Amino acid sequence: MTRRSRARIPLRKRLSVRLLSASVLIAVCSVAATAWLAVATTTRALREEQGQALSDDMDILARLSGYAATHADWTGVRRTVRDLSARTGRRIALTSPDRTLLADSAPRGASLPPRAAATVDPLRTDTYTERGAQLSGTDPRVVGPYRLTPPERQKLDGVARARRRCFSRYGIETTVAHTPSGRPVLAGADGGTVDEYVPEECADGRLDTPTPTEQKALTVLQAHAGPCLVREGLDPDMPLYFGAGVPAVDGRDATPAPAFVKAGEGRSGRAAQACLQEARRAQLDPYVAPVAELFLGGGDSGAPRWDMSPANKTKVFGAAGLVLAVTVAVSAVVATRLVRPLRALTEAAQQPPERHARVPVTTRDETGILAEAFNDLAERRERLEAQRKALVSDVAHELRSPLTNIRGWLEVTRDGLVEPDAELLGALHEEALVLQRVIDDLRDLAAADAGTLLLRREPVAADELLAQVAAAHRVAADGAGVALRTETDGLPWLDADPVRLRQALGNLVANAVRHTPPGGTVTLGARRDGEEVVLTVADTGTGIAEEDLPHVFERFWRAEKSRSRRTGGSGLGLAIVRQLTAAHGGTAEAAARAGAGSVFTLRLPASPPPADG
């Protein structure tokens, strides 16, 4: 049957297949996520490295362009090249256009890279990518004949301070900056020029008037531009002035650039500016270093580049395949070990109920705990089955005895062997009462087991309850020669069904009187213990053996197997006591010592006395 049941389970439904599939899915997701993270991290690192390398290249080019703008040759550039190479970790080499080496950070004899990274020409800079470039394409650090003399610089500084004070009177805050030629310019708070609005009082024109040095250079510049202007059909005597400078990209000061006063717009304006730029390059050429080629290498500290080559792909897929293979193997072993005890549990559960099969406990994990729980369940089932059979047997025995007696007396009376006198009728009535008592006890137990036992709760004084129970059993106790007493500590109250509590205590008292010899004492007690009321029934009878205490509340159990319903009751009284106490939210306990009497204790929730009490 087990094999057929296992065969009926579809392959995709089996636990081992599910575990294996889940493990493989987790492994695939883990490998994919790890690969994606590695690729993303590597790509980001490469981009950051490339961005840093590009920034370093731009800085190298800007520094060397600045050197060329302020030196007439490359004689002393070796120290600058070494410093830049040490800071960036790059190889830097400068050559002339014909590949004559000017400076190199690499050891002598090292070969140059195959291509030049850039051309260093301060008179023809890259307007869009090179920091410090002007719209004219000339490095702003190329000063040449426009450099002011110290007296001219001092004079213009005074004019600039006066204009700044004039601006301040109109609420315009400015700062004084100096161009590479030494000329001061006024900049606004945002770093831009202040030419958009100049108060009339401040517009004296002195700060923008060329100095003698600048005027001399402008005259030479105009002479250089004259032939070009003539070719373009323009006036070669157009006056020049210093236009507004353009701030450098890296934050250096703005440099006023020469421009024609009336260059015009459109084609003629562009032609005039082109002539001016060409003439300015010719004028500044003697003051700058010759054009050079810049070569850049990776250097010794360059980070290795990651390349997704076929070899790298093979490594990645090989590692992923190995991870998947190990995952499948480990998952298969784990799944087999997990499923084996479950299969044993399944086979045990499919055994016939009367066998009460057990499973071996081989581990201490969750599966082992499950196996222990299954074995405990099987043991409880076996015990409950035995109790059920014993209960049926005991009920049949308890009902058979009075029914047999009643049937026997009725048959002999019917046959005329016995006269139906008062004594016979009394005996038959007594047997009917015994039968009725057994049936009533079984009904109460069934109602308690089903949770349908009806309780009519009301405030109950413990002392009154004990007094009522003692009064009900006084005659039976006196007839047996047993003293019946009550002891109450304080005035404890309960919220309970008084009829059911009298029934529970009555069963205990009846049981105590029955097992107490003449001259003994049965004591009913009540006291408050925290949030509980403790009710006790103690006797000085024969007591109960220690090994019998766990069974006293079981149905139809008797300490002395020889006792019958005549001497030992129906065997249901103590079971009813426990069920009624549990229905009130309490517990029932038994304590005794053989030959020294016994004590039965009921612990019930306490209740405050009624408001009118």
Q: What features would you describe in this structure?
A:
It is a single chain. By secondary structure, the chain is of the alpha+beta class. The chain has four domains: 1-122 and 289-350, no CATH class; 144-287, no CATH class; 366-447, Helix Hairpins, CATH 1.10.287; 455-607, Histidine kinase-like ATPase, C-terminal domain (Heat Shock Protein 90, 2-Layer Sandwich). The protein contains 14 helices and 15 strands. The strands form four sheets. Strands 9, 10, 11, 12, 13, 14 and 15 form a seven-stranded mixed beta sheet that branches. Strands 2-1-8-3 form a four-stranded antiparallel beta sheet, covered by helices on one side. A hairpin with a 5-residue loop joins β14 (587-592) and β15. α8 runs antiparallel to α9 (422-450). It is elongated, with a radius of gyration of 57 Å. Residues 1-7, 127-135, 244-254, 300-306 and 561-568 have low confidence and may be disordered.
Please write the string of helix (H) and strand (E) elements.
Answer: HHHEEEHEEHEEHEHHHEHHEEHEEHHEE
Q: Terminal Cα separation, in Å?
A: 70 Å
What is the percent of helical residues? 40-55%
Shape: elongated
Number of H- or I-type helical stretches: 14
Beta-strand content: 5-15%
* Extended strand count: 15
Task: Estimate the mean pLDDT confidence.
Answer: 78
Largest sheet: 7 strands, mixed
Rg? 57 Å
Number of domain units: 4
> What structural category characterises the helix and strand content?
alpha+beta
Q: Which blocks of ≥5 consecutive residues have pLDDT under 50? A: 1-7, 127-135, 244-254, 300-306, 561-568
